[in-house]
Amino acid sequence: MLELAVLGLLQEAPMHGYELRKELATKLGTIRAAISYGTLYPTLKRLNAAGWISETAPEDAMVPPLTSKRGRIVYKITAEGKERFAELLAQAGPETYDDAGFGVHFAFFARTDRATRLRILEGRRRRIEERREGLREVLSRAADRLDAYTLELQRHGLEACEREVRWLEELITNERSGRSPATPAAETSPENPRPHQDRP
Questions:
Q1: What range(s) does the Transcription regulator PadR N-terminal domain occupy (predicted)?
Q2: Which tens digits make up the pLDDT trace of 19-48?
Q3: Where are the domains of the chain?
Q4: Which residues contact residue 28 at a Cβ distance below 8 angstroms, ignoring those fewer than 6 apart?
Q5: pLDDT for 139-157, tens place per residue?
Q6: Do 75 and 8 contact (CB within 8 A), yes or no?
Q7: Class assignment of domain 2-94?
């Protein structure tokens, strides 16, 4: 998943390692804690060895202040890397339904075709529904054997699953009707055109 994220960001612009880590943290949001230099630089090394990215040493004037020698390297995606990114983006298997996999793919949904987006969203919904049913079973069968804090934790998990299922169902409905998540149906109907849409 980190491979997909790195290639996607480098397709936007070449970056230093520290810039990449910063952008990854911004792009991936809640799963950013899993990204450290200890995981990022081995990934960059592997991508470079595969020919999917290239490394260049910039002019001294371009070197960010207070960075290490390794941090001065600029990483750039190659033509082969762009092809690899497109391949990864088109994947919609079970690994894209898990928390980390889904988060990374969702971060690049704007560049993913609608059919793939729908497959991932529907697969993620099934995964969360399974998790929700498991939590419901625990609460129905073992609630009387759980202490108050463990019980509250299970309830919290169940509520989170229920919220995510509702969110996913809304996204799936939008995808099937051709709307983006931020575009309410009322704004796109012929009777309710977007405000100021004729302004230059």
A1: 6-87
A2: 998 888 888 765 554 566 678 889 999 999
A3: 2-94, 114-181
A4: 5, 35, 103, 104, 107
A5: 988 888 889 999 999 999 9
A6: no
A7: mainly alpha
